[in-house]
Every structure is written in structure tokens, then in C-alpha cells.
## 1
Amino acid sequence: MEKCEDRVSIEDLVKKYCLYFDTNQPEKIIELFTEDVLIDYGPEVPPLKSKAAALAMFTGGLDNLFAQTSHHLSNFILDFDSPESAHSTSYVYAWHRYHHKSEIGYLWGHYHHKFTYALGVWKISELKLFAVHIENFHREKMHPVARH
């Protein structure tokens, strides 16, 4: 039963990330992460290596770049590496309305996450974004989804 509860808690972290991003709540987003989180949004953005760096990026993007966003998550696959660590892959479709341009930006891709359990809670310790396709997106280069 514990593993089932852990699965729900972990999946909720990613869902909350999407919800808090879409509702412009960077102070809630940041609480989902470990202190030493590693966030990689693609080759055009230096990796974020702390909660402080992530909060600065979330706040700036949500206030200055995005007028509205809508992130849709599906196909969540989770594997446990140990009782205190897990990793997942999930699909994301993201819709972006920008402050500075009229075109809507679209992204179809994957999130890869790592999770850590400490002090009785699961947190996101790593997030990496991959793209299958982008249109009018605010970045030109993304990590490609691997095909075998």
C-alpha cells in the first residue's frame, strides 16, 4: 500500500507543477523541488542548479514572458530506483500565449523527472524537458525525444 501512496504523491508533484505554472504561482512551484534541484529546459537555457535559480526563472517567465499557459500531462510512467528515489517519463502538451507576440506557442514532448524522498515527503530532484515538435515556441532548439 505504501508504494501505491508514493505513486500518487509523486504523480501529484508533476500535476501540481503544471497547475501552479498555469496559475502563475511560482512560490508554490518552487516548494515541489529539492534544494539542489537540476532543471534542464533545453540547450538554449543554462541548467538551473538550485531552488533559488529556478524561482528567479519561474518568476521572470511567468511575469514577463507568458500571458497564459496551459500544460496537459499524460502517459505518466514511474519506476522506483530505491525506497527513497524514483524516476518518471510523462508526455506534455503545452500551449503558450505570450506578452510580446500574437502567435500561440505550442510544444509536444516529454518530461523526464527524478524524485527524492526525504523527511517524509517526495520532491522533484531533476526535471528535463524534451520536444517532439514545437510551433511558434519561445525557443528554437530543444532536446529531442530519442527514437530507437
## 2
Amino acid sequence: MKQFLLALALGMRPAKIYRGTDSAIEGYLMTLTDGHILGYHVWRRAVMADFLFRHTRLEKGSLEKDKYGFLERENGTWYFKLNAKIGWMKRLPAPTKGADR
């Protein structure tokens, strides 16, 4: 799951085949509600993957809007369309001692 979240954050998109190449994104800067800034850089992949794993959640999309969960036939092949949404947690905790800043 951590590798999946990291791939999504660094360039994997549903409209194209993902070949493991990162996009131009080098990392993320997060501003917490208390004003602290956290930085996660791509060359610290394990730290960034841990952060994404701890601070994201799976969400359920609208069946009507996203039209998933149904069998569809395309070019003679049957597909079952699935939908997974990943969102940030509402509030990120204050940084712990030793966290990147």
C-alpha cells in the first residue's frame, strides 16, 4: 500500500500506463494548522511513503456520479469498473521530535 501511495503521489495516473518513472514532482511541503511546515523529499522515499500511509485514507465515491461497480462491455471484453479515492486526513498532527521541517 505504501508503494502504491508513493507511486500515486509521484506521477501514476489512471489515464496512462505507469512504467515506474516519477514525474517532475520532487516532494511535498505541508503546512499544519499550527503553522509548522513539514517537508518530504523524493530521495527519502521511505519517510515519504510512511507519511502518506499514516495521513491518507480510502474514501468512497458517489455511485451515480462516478458510475462504478457495474459490468461494462467494451470491444467484446467485459470490464468491472472500480473506483478508489484517496484523501488526506482532515487534520495532520503536530510534528514529533526528529521529524523533517
## 3
Amino acid sequence: MEEAVWHQSIQGVMVKDGKNIFPISWLSRQAYCEYQIFLENIKGVKVWDTKEMVTGTKKHEKLFEEHKEKATEEGSVEEFLERARKEKVSFVLRELRVIAPETGLHGSIDEVVINPTYVEIIDDKPGDTAWPGNIRQIWGYCLAFRECHGPDIPVVGTMRNRDTRNRAWTERMTPEHEQAMKEAIDRVRGIISEEREAEPTAQANKCRKCRFHTQGKCDRSLALAANQHI
């Protein structure tokens, strides 16, 4: 089986076993406006990170460093799954890398809690509101984890407030969630393969907050069109 390599022309996409594998974070972007994916990663439009994005990266790095300082166990995910089942204890992993060619996703999971009877996949976000894009991204992590490590116990997705550490949303993944995710993933794969066009959001308020609009890089901005008609 061949190793995953970076796509020759599409930023962020990997190729493994002849399959395109895109970042799990794209599922959140797709729910907001999938035209962002086309602009930045396929067309190559350059935009700078927002202050919130820079702050978020620093806070995630800080959480990872704190986790490493406290970590006392070493081993593979499969070993921890087996130990949790036998010893009735839990293990916490941070920034777990997953590459799932069949599912079509790759990324790093903020936190994985392996319990004796279920696995919890945690994504840290600023705030307590679980937006549709946040949930879609979390299900993506759940699917990728299951493909990579195949636990025979339920997988639960959780969004946690990055600053307060409170769980803002949690739910067990079901076959219905999986089917909805397959459709979302297939849409993004279609954009990558150029079998379909990326669709911009139909909500002007999203455009007003989007960095592609605020930096003047989007040719499909509804906010720009609205301003021209004032």
C-alpha cells in the first residue's frame, strides 16, 4: 500500500491509493460557503489569516503543550483501546493524526478520550454554539478515526468550549449521520475532481464576515452585490 503524498496542484489535498483525501476542516468551510475551498485551495487565491485564526492556533498549541507535560503513558491507539476494555480505565490522546483514504479525509483530532465502552472525539472551538459546520467537522473526525482504528464500540462526537473547557454539544454518531456525511464528502470530492462547481453561500451576512470578501478576493460575494444596489 502506497504512502499518502500531497496533491500536485491542489493545496491541502493528499493522494493515497489513487484516492483524493481532503482536510476534515473543509467540511466546516463547506457548510459555511464551499466557494471558499475553490478560491483558496483550487484557484490559489491568497488571503491572510484573521486575528481570530491566529489566536485559535496559539491556544491549540498551548493546550497540546499542557497535555504533553501531563502525559504519563505511551502506546498505540489500538493498545489503549484494548487496555481501556480490560482495565476499565480511560486514556486521553491529543492532536491525533488521521488519514482515511476510503472516507476521503485527513486531519488532526484535538482530543480523543478512549473509555471502556465508547470513544469520545472532541473538537475545541471558541464559544458554546455548535454551528452546522462545527458538527459536520466533528462527524468527519469520527468517521476518519473509525476507519483508521476500527473500534468496535460506539463513537461519540463532542464540541468543547476552548476557553472554559465545558462541553457545549455531544452526540453519538448514528448511521443517519454517516449517510449525511457521505453526501457532504462526495460533494467536496466532486469539486476536487472538477465534476461539479463549488457553490457560494446564498446568505449575504455570511459574505460580510468572510475574509475573502473583506480582503476583496471574492468574485461571488453577495455582500458586494448588495452594496452596489444600495
